[in-house]
UniProtKB/TrEMBL annotation:
It comes from Vibrio barjaei. It is an enzyme of class 2 (transferase). Residues 3-155 form the N-acetyltransferase domain. CDD domains: NAT_SF. This is GNAT family N-acetyltransferase. Keywords: Acyltransferase, Transferase. Pfam families: Acetyltransf_10. Its EC number is 2.3.1.-. One of its GO terms (molecular function) is acyltransferase activity. The lineage of its organism: Bacteria, Pseudomonadati, Pseudomonadota, Gammaproteobacteria, Vibrionales.
Amino acid sequence: MHFTIRKARASDALAISQLIIPLTKKYVCPDCDESVHNVLLGSMSPERIEGYMASNYSYVVAVSESNEVIGVGGVRDNTHLYHLFVHDEYQGKGLSRQLWESVKGFALQNGNKGRFTVNSALSAENVYLQFGFKRIDGVRREKGMVDIPMVLDVTEK
């Protein structure tokens, strides 16, 4: 498995959206109320992704040898892990950790003092636990969304 991780460009917005929408439908939507599916998926449109990248979000992408976006990591305000998705074919091979390490490093270089948050999908909690995140609270159900708020303090040893 050969791939390159690089900073995402606005021209990647469509490929990012095409990667994360099906994964969200498969792994996130089943735990959420149907009433929020369209809002959630709409927040992942190419236009919205491009808007995030033009504002206070930083994204990296993993690109295969055939130039396909196979993974993405995005951080808001250098503190909140907003998106972390890996194509099904590449899951379980350490790619999510590499994407996380890349966006974490970028955030630390850009002013983060070592504290990160994430609102984990139920199906992703174990991945974040492996990265060192800890639950702040139990499973949260708000306005149809279901997640687990988590925090990581990289200054703790």
